[in-house]
Specification:
The complex is a heterodimer. Chain A has one domain. Chain A has 13 helices and 2 strands; from the N terminus they run αααααββαααααααα. A two-stranded antiparallel ribbon of chain A has the order 1-2. In chain A, a hairpin with a 3-residue loop joins strand 1 and strand 2. Chain A starts with 5 loop residues before the first helix and ends with a helix. By secondary structure, chain B is an all-alpha fold. Chain B has one domain. Helix content of chain B is 74%, strand content 2%. Chain B is built from 11 helices and 2 strands. In chain B, strands 1-2 form a two-stranded antiparallel sheet. In chain B, helix 1 packs parallel to helix 5, helix 1 packs antiparallel against helix 10 and helix 2 runs antiparallel to helix 3. Chain B is globular. The N and C termini of chain B lie far apart (44 Å). The C terminus of chain B is likely disordered. The chains are: A mainly alpha, B mainly alpha. Chains A and B meet through helix 5, helix 10 and helix 12 of A and helix 4, helix 9 and helix 11 of B.
Chain lengths: 319, 288
C-alpha cells in the first residue's frame, strides 16, 4: 500500500498559489490568456502522460475536453447544482469513458491505436452535433451563472483562479506520478511492452490507467474551458485540435517531464496569442512547427537545448 | 437498385484509397494519415483543369501527375527526413503534413466546395431495365476502380518493377542484396499509392464537390477497409471498401445520415475484436 502523497499535495498547492498570484498581477487580457494557458497545460499534461510517458498515441484528447465542457454545462443547466458538484461529476465520467476507451484499445499499439481513437473522436463529434437540447447541437451551450460555496458567484476571475490553481497542482502531482513506481512502469511499457510484461508489470492495467488519468485531465480542462469562455463550441474539438495538442507535446519533448507540457503551450499558444500574429495561419503554423520539430529536434525544444549543453560540456572536457 | 449502385460507387472510392494505404504500408511500414489530402489535391487538380476547359486527357493526366509529385514528396519527408525516427513519430509526421496541406488549401480556395462535373460523360442518368436509373458517374467510378485494380494486379504480378516493389516490401535488406534499388522502389510505391488516390479524388469530386476536408472524411472509412485486409491484402482492401460503402449507404437510410460515422466506428471495433489481423489477411499482422 503506497503512502498517501502528502508532500506532492503540499508542494502542488504552493505552486498552484504562485500560479494564482501570477494570474492576479497580470492585466485583464493577459490574465485571460493565462487562464487559457492553464487549461492547455492540463490537457497537455494528460496527452504527454499517454504519448511521452506510456508511448501511446491517442487522437481523442479533444473529445474529452468537449466531454468536460458539455457535460459540466449540461449538469449546471439541468440540475442547478454548484460547479463544486458538476465538475467532479464530469471528471468522473471522463475517467470512466477514458478507461473504457483504453480497455477497447488494449490489444492495439502504434497506428492502430491512433486509428481507433480517431474513430472515437469522430463518433463523439457526431453525438455532439446530434445531441439536440442536451448539447445544443451545432450552436453549443451557454454556461449559466453559478455560485460556489464561500466564494459567491463564479465570475471570469474565479474561473481563472480555479484553472491556474488546478494547473499548478496538477503539474506537481503528475510530476510525482511520473517519478513513482507507476511512472517507471509506464516508461518500461513504452520502451518494450513484452519485456515490461516479463518483469511482472501488469501492462493492461497500467495502459487503461494511463488512458483514464489522461482523459480525466482533459475532461477537467474542458470544464474550466467552458467556465472561461462562457459557452461550449462544438466546432472546437476536431482532429486539428488533436494535432495542436500533439504539437504541444512534441515541442515540449515526448518525455516524462512536466516542463515540456508547460513550454509547449506557452511557446505555441501564448506567444502568438499575445502578439495576435497568426490569425488565419494558425493551422499552417502548427503543421509546419510540428513537422519541423519532428525532423530537426525529435526530443523537443527542451531536449535539443540539453543536448546542446551536453555536447558543449563534452567538448570542453576533451580540451 | 440505384441505392446499391450508389453504395458500390462510394465504396469504390474507399477501396481505391484503402488499396493505396495498403500498398504504401506494405512497402514502407508507414500508415499515412495524410492519404486523404492526396485525394483532396487530386480533386483540386481535376476541378481546376476541368474548369479551364482542358481536353479530357489533360483533365485526367493532371491529377495523376499531382499524385506522382505528392508521392515523391511523401517519400522524401518520411524516408529521407524522418527515415530513422520511431513509428509513432512518422505517424505524427504524416498528421502534420495532413494539417499543412488542408490548411494551405483552405487559405487558397476557402471552405466553399467547388463544383465538379463528372469526367468524360457529364451528369447523366441511364435507364436500366425495370424502370430504375443509375447515374452514369456511379458506373464510371465502378469501371475506373475495376481498371485500376486490374492494372495494379498486372503491375505487381507481371512486370519487373512490380515484382521488385513486392520484393522490397517483403524484405528490404534481402532485396538490396539482389541488386534491387530499395529507395527507388519505395519512392515508386509511394507514387503508385499517390496516383491511385488522386484518381479516387477525381472520381469523388462530382459526388461531394471539392473542398479542403473532402479527403479527411474519406480517410477513416478507407482505414477500416484497409484494416479489413489487415493492411496486407489488396483484395481485402477492395472487398472491404466496397462492403463498407454498401453497409454505410443502407445504414444512412436506416438510421439517418449523421450516424454514418457511428456505424463505421462500430464496424471498426467489431473487426478489431473479431479478427485484429484482418479478415482477408494471409500473413500475421506485424506486432509492435
Amino acid at each position: 500500500m503506497p503512502k498517501f502523497p502528502y508532500a506532492p499535495l503540499v508542494y502542488g498547492a504552493l505552486v498552484g498559489l504562485v500560479a494564482v498570484g501570477v494570474a492576479l498581477v497580470l492585466p485583464t487580457y493577459p490574465r485571460f490568456v493565462f487562464g487559457q494557458l492553464a487549461v492547455l497545460v492540463l490537457v497537455t499534461l494528460g496527452v504527454n502522460l499517454l504519448l511521452g510517458v506510456a508511448g501511446l498515441l491517442s487522437l481523442a484528447s479533444p473529445a474529452f475536453v468537449g466531454l468536460g465542457a458539455n457535460l459540466s454545462t449540461a449538469i449546471l443547466l439541468r440540475a442547478h447544482v454548484p460547479i463544486a458538484i458538476s465538475i467532479p461529476l464530469a471528471v468522473l465520467a471522463g475517467w470512466c469513458v477514458g478507461w473504457l476507451l483504453g480497455f477497447l484499445s488494449l490489444r492495439l499499439a502504434g497506428f492502430y491505436l491512433a486509428m481507433v481513437t480517431f474513430g472515437f473522436l469522430n463518433v463523439f463529434l457526431v453525438l455532439l452535433n446530434e445531441g439536440r437540447e442536451l448539447t445544443g447541437g451545432g450552436y453549443g451551450l451557454i454556461v449559466p451563472p453559478t455560485r460556489l460555496p464561500f466564494l459567491g458567484p463564479v465570475t471570469l476571475q474565479t474561473a481563472i483562479v480555479l484553472a491556474t490553481f488546478t494547473a499548478g497542482l496538477a503539474t506537481v502531482l503528475v510530476g510525482s506520478l511520473q517519478r513513482s513506481r507507476v511512472g517507471r512502469a509506464w516508461l518500461a511499457i513504452k520502451d518494450n511492452p513484452v519485456a515490461a510484461e516479463l518483469q511482472g508489470i501488469d501492462v493492461p492495467r497500467l495502459k487503461t490507467l494511463a488512458f483514464a488519468i489522461s482523459s480525466a485531465l482533459a475532461t477537467l480542462a474542458g470544464t474550466y474551458q467552458a467556465l472561461l469562455l462562457g459557452v461550449t463550441n462544438p466546432s472546437a474539438y476536431s482532429l486539428n485540435v488533436s494535432i495542436a495538442h500533439l504539437t504541444y507535446v512534441v515541442v515540449g519533448g515526448m518525455a516524462p517531464s512536466v516542463v515540456g507540457p508547460i513550454v509547449g503551450p506557452l511557446a505555441l499558444f501564448v506567444v502568438p496569442e499575445l502578439f495576435r500574429a497568426i490569425g488565419q495561419y494558425r493551422e499552417v503554423f502548427y503543421g509546419a512547427i510540428l513537422l519541423f520539430v519532428l525532423i530537426v529536434a525529435p526530443n523537443g525544444i527542451a531536449g535539443a537545448i540539453s543536448e546542446l549543453g551536453r555536447r558543449r560540456a563534452s567538448g570542453e572536457a576533451k580540451q | 437498385m440505384s441505392l446499391l449502385v450508389g453504395g458500390i460507387a462510394i465504396g469504390a472510392v474507399y477501396a481505391l484509397v484503402a488499396i493505396s494505404l495498403t500498398l504504401i504500408f506494405r512497402a514502407t511500414g508507414i500508415v499515412n494519415f495524410a492519404q486523404g489530402e492526396m485525394l483532396m489535391v487530386g480533386g483540386y487538380a481535376y476541378v481546376i483543369l476541368a474548369g479551364s476547359g482542358a481536353n479530357p486527357a489533360v483533365q485526367i493526366a493532371g491529377p495523376i501527375a499531382a499524385g506522382l509529385v505528392l508521392g515523391l514528396l511523401f517519400f522524401f519527408v518520411t524516408r529521407v527526413l524522418l527515415g530513422r525516427a520511431a513509428e509513432i513519430t512518422v505517424v505524427i509526421g504524416t498528421l502534420a503534413i495532413s494539417i499543412l496541406l488542408q490548411a494551405a488549401a483552405r487559405l487558397k480556395f476557402t471552405d466553399n466546395p467547388m463544383r465538379a462535373v463528372p469526367w468524360l460523360f457529364g451528369e447523366r442518368d441511364i435507364a436500366l431495365g425495370g424502370g430504375t436509373t443509375v447515374s452514369i458517374n456511379a458506373l464510371t467510378v465502378v469501371l475506373a476502380t475495376v481498371v485500376v485494380f486490374a492494372a495494379l494486379q498486372w503491375l505487381f504480378s507481371r512486370t519487373l518493377y512490380g515484382k521488385a516493389m513486392r520484393a522490397v516490401a517483403e524484405d528490404a535488406r534481402r532485396a538490396a542484396i539482389t541488386g534491387i534499388p530499395v529507395n527507388a522502389m519505395l519512392a515508386l510505391s509511394w507514387c503508385v499509392g499517390g496516383v491511385v488516390t488522386a484518381v479516387a479524388g477525381v472520381l469523388l469530386s462530382p459526388v461531394t464537390g471539392v473542398f479542403p476536408a473532402m479527403g479527411a472524411s474519406v480517410l477513416f472509412p478507407a482505414f477500416i477497409a484497409a484494416a479489413l485486409g489487415g493492411f496486407e491484402s489488396v483484395v481485402g482492401a477492395l472487398v472491404g471498401g466496397l462492403g463498407l460503402g454498401i453497409v454505410q449507404t443502407y445504414a444512412v437510410v436506416g438510421v439517418g445520415g449523421a450516424f454514418r460515422d457511428v456505424v463505421t466506428f462500430a464496424v471498426l471495433v467489431a473487426v478489431l475484436i473479431w479478427r485484429p489481423q484482418g479478415i482477408f489477411a494471409t500473413v500475421a499482422r506485424r506486432t509492435h
